Amino acid sequence: MFPRKSQLSAKADSKTYPLGEQSEQSREQSERVAIAFVALSHSSVEQQLYVAMLAEIENGESLATFTARRLMMLTEIRSLSTIRRGVEGLMAKLSIERQARSNGNGGRDAGSAYRVYSPEEVIERRKERGFSFANGIESRQVNHSFERVISRVVANKNLSRREAQVALSCVEGLTNAQIGNRLEVTEQTVKFHLRHVFIKFGVKRRAELISRLLM
């Protein structure tokens, strides 16, 4: 879903650090949870832009300059207004931040400089400001059980973004009507996505789905 940055890591002696491998697995799981939360909070356009901008960040830097036309080339989104709305959405959701940058002659660069935050950083920024994680999933609701649910939803590569949102909302105990209100779709659309979720998880009803994700 996201490009992964290359990381240098020292190889620990398993006899000296018997929990090293488990700790690494735990970190990877936390990364997957963060990626899922952030992806689910973005619209499809915002997600395209976020992935493209994140991929352009090199050498551990988090600041880069993007023009609207460069973003159009990176994402193949052809509408300038769509690009602008997507960038504004990412800033509103604390995924990126516009920075002032001088060209050295007292003027501004042709493009705007943006700080692009990693999924983990986005979550921390939202926590600090009391923002919801993804479509109404509040920070107070995120516990170890729900992290496990997120990981299992992410692990199912066949799920679309909308299907993942519906599955997570089911675990929260929302009715089809409540899910529709949250996602701003009709109840019939929710039922349509839910049928696909059942098929992809190999279950026949909502209670089975919740049990499969929580156990």
Note down, in words, how this protein is organized.
By secondary structure, this protein is mainly alpha-helical. The protein folds into two domains: 23-130, Arc Repressor Mutant, subunit A (Orthogonal Bundle), CATH 1.10.10; 143-215, Arc Repressor Mutant, subunit A (Orthogonal Bundle), CATH 1.10.10.10. It has ten helices and three strands, in the order ααβααββαααααα. It has helices spanning 20-41, 44-56, 68-75, 80-92, 119-129, 144-155, 161-171, 176-183, 187-201, 206-214; strands at residues 63-66, 96-99, 112-116. A three-stranded antiparallel sheet has the order 1-3-2. α6 runs antiparallel to α7 (161-171). The longest helix has 22 residues, at 20-41. It is globular and about 50 Å long. It starts with 19 loop residues before the first helix and ends with a helix.
